[in-house]
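Consider this pair:
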Amino acid sequence: MRRPVLAILFCLGAALGLGGCQSAEEKAQKHYISGLAMPEAAARALPDDALVQLHLGLTYLAPGQSDAARPLLQKALALAGDSPLPAFAAARAEPARLAPP
């Protein structure tokens, strides 16, 4: 009898946003979405900052949102010019990820 009560409390906690019955994928998606707020705000506030645009593009690219990432990465590289920073060098080294589909 004790296990059903614990399961109900566990799921009630999940419904209230306290964790619980969510799958690992649901939790990861929730964290990803909440984690976008800061880079998106920074990109809006600093549209000419190559590193900010690059980081937002990479944030979109990580879960496979290449259509959203591509213009940001291209803009970042254009803004960066021939900057020797490793982040830009790594982005330049993967032109397939930047090319339109």
About this structure: Helices lie at 2-15, 24-45, 50-61, 66-80, 86-92, 95-98. Residues 52 and 71 are 13 Å apart (CA to CA). The chain is about 75% helix and 0% strand.
